[in-house]
Amino acid sequence: MINTSITQPVVDKEIRELERDKRIKDGSQRVTSTKDVATKDATSKPLFDKQEILREKQSLIEQKLGELTNKLLSGLKSGEQGPNMPRLLQVAPNLASDVRELLKALEGNEKLATFKEALAKFIKPIENLSPQGVAQGIKDSGIMLEAKIAQSLEAQSLPSKIKELLSQMKNTQNQGLKESFLKLPNDSDAKKSISDLGALLKEQKKLNQETINNSPFKALDKASNALENAAKYLDKLSNLGKNLSLKTAANLLSRIESSIQNAQKSANNYNLNSATLKDARAIREQINASANELQNALNLLKNKDSNFKAFLTRYDPNNKQNATLKEALSKQNEPKANHIRINIQTSNTGSTAHSSSLSANSAQNQAQNASQNSSFSQNSSFSQNYTLTQEQNSFKNINLSQFKEATSSEVNTPNLQGKITELARALTSLKNTLSPELASAKSALEEINSLARLAKSAAKSIGAIKPNNAEQALKELQSDMKSVLLNLKESTQNQSSTQNIHTAAQRLLTQIEIHQLASFAQNSLQTYLPYHWDELNSSNLSFKRGNKDKFYARIELSFVKFGEIGIVLGLAENKFLDVSIQTGNDGFKELILSETKSLKRALNELGLVVNNFFVASKGGKSAYEHYGDIDLGYNIKA
User: Fold this and answer.
1) What pLDDT digit, counting tens, does each position of 183-208 carry?
2) Helix (H) or strand (E) holding 355
3) Residue 124 in 3-state DSSP?
């Protein structure tokens, strides 16, 4: 007899057994009193699991995906290698299309009508595309089934803000900060837990700020920040299409020129003749080259010379002349010696350098001198009524149309902000090479500030913590694609009349599990587009969280008419967007280029600032590798 019930998924039994074992181990019983008592019980529990933060406890999802890894590897070993592998593994490469085929197979089968109704909810027409629909579709795609099971076993259900806080704590890149979470008390309730975290973050912020303030290399950091803010501000002006006066443009260029001069001065403030500083010397050479090119471009803008564009070219990592620098940049994150003796030129001597061990006092004076006029705040007011100083008068007669051309953010067009960003990144590379301690403290401080903001938001949502209801959690699992397919597979096994349905369900499950395996291996989320589109052959979506509140998405689509397209998006600070697009043919690329302005305008209307936008055709070299100005968070070569 066919089991047509999908109210009790196949995973129910395992969940109940795990929940029972958990209750026995904890010595606790499920709260069955009033709602107020239940909520109080939920909020009285500590929020921070130290073992989980340090990744010392193997979660249920990791166990399940470990089993999945072994299962797929066994299938690969036993199967035939070559072009027939997808067929032998029973993979459904176009999952949306295969679901529609399965729905056709279920037509007319009254005993399986419930499954048909459930599956029809997962794949919607592309006309119904919406942000909310995509988010819910991905949530129910089957990729997160084991995560949902693990969550259902937790004692309490947490609001999104608290989940976000916990996620960032677990994913912090700074090991010292991660280990400091061990200082959090074990027996705190939710409110006290967040309060304790706030105190800990305040202490860590002070320690890291002291490291930054006492570093002899902080001038490099300030100079890099000033340039990054300048580039972001120019991008914002360009993307929003604001009209500028000559005075405002002159003010901007003058401050940029001052920042460039300060950056070069900061980089040249250190004697790097030691044999151990070969990498640093190579990076400094690039800093000087970039600064000189920028200064030449600004000088030409002053003189209304259109040749300024020749100096806005970007650094090409394939240039053999830059091989030394390329090697140096690749090594910047390697651990350096704890003590490096560097000769620092004092600001009150003409050209004489003296040896220094970078003591805090002398270094602080050096940094203060080197960082004069380095500030370039993105939030500074650039009023059109700004009075030009004598220095800024050199730009007062610039050609405004040339200024707009130099800062244009047209696709694939070199611009002033691109060159400024290149210089800022080289300064950061020099800082990281000379002082890993400063780089670590700076990174930790950014994470601390982000965690502190999240902690404040989380504190406001403590009242929304509720005890988990196992029955409700099981109901939510019914709306999961993998759960439905598992039950459909079990209901049709050993039935000759439904063998085709059983096989189709297995193919879909295998494809979902491959997505899960890829997600597990890459520490990301890989899935499919939960919509059907006759013009689309296949789809693949990947989402990943990077460092410092950066998020990445990779979209791979194969169209019937236009061929393949790969899109990689990088989002920073919830507003700065990097876009890299690679098409399968030139015609598709030209079509995208023709609509770029309207696309960027639409993104701006959503509150996004497009930092970089790059479009190329697929060739021998990946566009993601070639375009070095975009930090996209994916190792394309892997």
Assistant:
1) 888 767 888 889 999 999 999 999 99
2) strand 353-356
3) strand
Handedness of CA 110, 111, 112, 115 (dihedral sign): positive
| Tokens matching residue 593 | 């280029």
* pLDDT tens digits for range 302-342: 888 888 888 886 544 444 444 554 454 444 444 343 333 34
Q: What does the alpha-carbon distance between residue 436 and residue 237 come to, in Å, rounded to a whole number?
A: 34
- Map residue 609 onto helix, strand or coil: strand
Tell me if 46 sits within 8 A of 186, measured CB to CB: yes
Measured distance CA(217)–CA(358) in Å, rounded? 9
What are the C-alpha distances in Å from 478 to residues 127, 137, 375, 469, 492?
25, 14, 56, 15, 18
The CA distance from 119 to 100, in Å, is: 9
Task: Judge contact between 158 and 457, C-beta under 8 A.
Answer: no
Assigned token pair, 40: 């109080």
pLDDT at 57 over 70: no
Taking a C-beta distance cutoff of 8 angstroms, is the pair 443, 175 a contact?
Answer: no
Least confident of 40-44, 99-103, 179-183, 491-495: 40-44
- Yes or no: say if 77 and 509 are a contact pair by the CB < 8 Å rule: no
DSSP state of 636: T
Strands in 456-549 per DSSP E = 466-467, 525-527, 531-532, 536-545
Residue 202 has a pLDDT of 94
Pairing of strands 576-583, 609-617: parallel
Q: How far is CA 556 from CA 519, 529, 564, 577, in A?
A: 15, 10, 7, 18
Whole-angstrom distance between the N-terminal and C-terminal Cα of the chain? 48
Q: What is the mean predicted confidence (pLDDT) over 614-633?
A: 59
What is the H or E stretch that residue 89 is in? none
Q: Which two tokens stand for residue 270?
A: 């250190």
How many C-beta atoms lie closer than 10 Å to residue 370's C-beta?
26
Cβ atoms of 613 and 235 within 8 Å: the answer is no
Q: What 8-state DSSP symbol labels residue 48?
A: -
Tell me the three state secondary structure of residue 510: helix
Q: Which residues contact 163 (CB under 8 A, 6 or more apart)?
A: none
C-alpha dihedral (461, 465, 471, 477), degrees to nearest 10: 40
pLDDT tens, 245-281?
888 888 889 999 999 999 999 999 988 888 889 999 9
Distance from the Cα of residue 57 to its chain's centroid: 25
Which residues, listed in sequence order, are joined to residue 355 by a DSSP beta bridge?
343
| pTM of this prediction exceeds 0.85 | no
